[in-house]
User: Fold O-fucosyltransferase family protein from Eucalyptus grandis.
Amino acid sequence: MQILPLFSKHKVVHFNKTDARLANNGISLDLQRLRCRVNFQALKFTPQIEALGNKLVHLLRDKGPFMALHLRYEMDMLAFSGCTQGCTAEEAEELKRMRYAFPWWREKEIVSEERRSQGLCPLTPEETSLVLQALGFDKDMQIYIASGEIYGSERRLATLRAAFPRIVKKEMMPDPKELQQFHNHSSQMAALDFMVSIASNTFIPTYDGNMAKLVEGHRRYLGFKRTVLLDRKKLVVLLDLYQNGTPSQNDFEVAVRLAHEKKMGQPSHRRVIVVKPKEEDYFYANPLECLCKQRDCDDLLGPGKRNSSEVSS
Assistant:
């Protein structure tokens, strides 16, 4: 049977046995570009989500430029990652109980300090405040919190709010009733955050989960909009030194900025790990083949850089 008539009739085609992630590399240029057109142009949210998402964006833009901060300091994120930086002993125990309550979660005993030193923990709201200031963001910057409920609620946002008073959440909309239809539907609330994040002047994720990667790639597709990809492994070292009195504030700021000079969403090749494809860079986070005119992308990256990101093992 021909697929096109079915597609024309139903508008959607579901292919069986395609739930596994598609390969990132080694695919024809035509197919890669088709993936981009489907993901970044054809896929749409429901009319209700689109309408409210667009309204949120317009409300924010009316008040000037804004940053979307994907602050992944949420209870489930902390529980399953085992990250307890900034938590009290009671909170750390609560997070551990949550992790043990889910039999399917294999990793039960996690050393938070080890995980954090490897760059595998989201930054805390307090750490995020220091990093944003070091990167030179003005205190009057409008910041949209693109996440669910922050663990510890307003108490944990106090430091960030003191440094950047213009913090906005979707729950602070003029008419809260408009959000009621999405309550208890976390994926739909996340879709609203996604729309705002795509439209923001600057996007900063404090953890590189699936949503952060999709937003990163979509913003690249829209013309390499500024996306600050935090180097958490370097940052935790700098943050710990700074909070212990070294280096000076000026040296700390210089070090943070130098660490992120090339992490602003600029054109770059994906990292390719031939023997460990699950650990290589995600195609949708950096769909470079869709963004350049030449097959080797020399027009974006300059000549001689095409293999610099390949890792064989």
Observations:
- Residues 47-61 form the longest helix (15 residues).
- The longest strand covers residues 66-70.
